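Newbie here. two chains, one complex. Structure please?
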Amino acid sequence: MTDPSQQAPEPRPEPAAGAQAGEPPEPEPAPEREAEATSRAEAAEPAPAPEPTAAHQPQPAPEPQPEPAPPPRRPRRGGWLESLAEHPEAVIEVPRRRLAAASRRDFLLFALGTLASAAGAWWLLPGRTRARLLPGPAHDRLDTLAARVGLTSERREGALDRALTFDDDVAEALYSKNHRVRTYDRSAVTPLRNNYDGQTPGPEYLPGWTLSVTGLASGRSERLRIETLLARFAHVEQVTRLVCVEGWSAIAWWGGIRFADFLAAFPPAPGARWAALRSSVNLDGAGRPDPYYVSIDLRTARHPQTLLATHFGGRPLPIGHGAPLRLLVPMKLGLKNIKAVTDIAYTAGEPADYWNERGYSKYDGL
Amino acid sequence: MVPMSASEPPPDRPSRPAPDLTLRVVVKHHALVRLSHWINLPLLLGLIASGLAIYWAAPVFTHARDPVTGSGDYMTDLGLLLAGLFRDRGGEPWNWVYDHLSLGTRQLAVALRLHWALAYLFMLNGALYVLGLAAGGGWRALLPRPGDVRDGLAMIRYYVGVVPMAIRRRPWPHPPITSKYNALQRAAYFTVPLAGLLVVLSGWAMHKPVQLGWLERLFVSYDGARVVHFAGMVVMGAFVVPHVILVIADGWDTFRSMIVGWSARVRESAHD
């Protein structure tokens, strides 16, 4: 307001008209009325009329004009650019007591929010992080205090699990069988690491390998050899990206049979909604047997890009990538793409999932 | 804040108090803008801490293995550098960044759960911010406008000179500002929400690259989204440092205005 080097005057008729309408018919404005007019005049940025801030002066002196005020420029480009222009900041007159009460309330809320954030942060941090941040007895005292107000570790796990379930629900809602996984040229293939979490199994399991299938409509259980599967089903190929929960990804050339074809040939029992896939040859880091298992909803299993893969890079699967048969669900995180499948069971209820039991999500849809 | 509205009751209300019992203040920030501004602070801290713990599992920015240090990525290089700088012999210098700025290494499962929980809250909070900008009309003050480059350079010149001139006791006037923010502030307050939007979009592109394939393509590729996501974090983190310094330099009134919504600097037309 007091700055003479203003920007171009903004022809905003509304508040300016209000200020002018408020002035002339008032011969002796009461102080509070003048204050009101002040705020409006303030809003009408380049109003040439009385100095608005001099509320105590009955006859306000006109503001010194360093140069003759330029005629108001007309908006050159219609009005849309004008509508984006910043409005001058509104100056208002508020009773001190009301302002103090409102400000007190806001500071109180701010303090409460700070306290709640600190408590929430301590509660949500994993135990190892907390132990590093604050070693010693102070850590236990804070934990006791947090537990006393209801911020227990059980509740933390519950809250975080709910966030994960919510995210899974979002993923499931986003899923469409019409959404295809992006496919690539073979020239786009990148190296794919063997990400077996434990030791990679030795080749001893290969000669005796069979795929056992249960939960079938026939009521029987099947034991299938790889030769049977390769001979019976059409071979399809696709170049897709495998996305790991760790954040890395790789494009690979896969071949195998469609899970949908397999499901059509070996239909699940009525009411089945899930497939539990298991690898009994999986090993832990010390080389001990550590069966791996994933849950796949049959909707995803029937997706045309879901394969029971038998080939990698145009050759039969190597052991590191799950010989002789692995699941390839490129619309799920890599951890669902179980290697060296030995058992498939169709179930009505949701089966257990190896990594879900270790704190990861259950649905893992990409 | 009810009494802060610019459309006050009609002037001839008889029960208005005498002028010495009232105070003239500038209306600054909408209540929702203030609320979301402060909620951002713990959310961003948590998102960065959990995000870096996720980054630990597979760094984006890698290079050929250094034969001397054995490091294969820039975050490890930075960790080694910082551990040396601070003469920190406590933990594993390789993981210095993860141990000090994130939840730590080998916490992928919990970091992911925390990151999703906070990310949903961050999006909700972003919606509150947008709502507050729309309701209070504050968005207009953030838009870039003609002359911003010139005015921004003038502000840089001012900031560069302000300390040396204070030492030499020479006058160093603040460039005249007639808007809510100066051109540099405007650039920052416009860029940071944009970075927030990009972080959210690239996050979704990485999280659901199949169902939201169009979004992944928007970032060219899956790895493109990862790079943008990381860069967005750097932009928001880099903004905080001058933001906090300038608010401290500007004083109590500016800090308070983000809590209570008003400023007492009426005559100076509030140029910081």
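Moderator note: Chain A has three domains: 1-53+86-93, 100-174, 186-358. Chain A touches chain B through 81 residues (CB under 8 Å). Thread marked as resolved.
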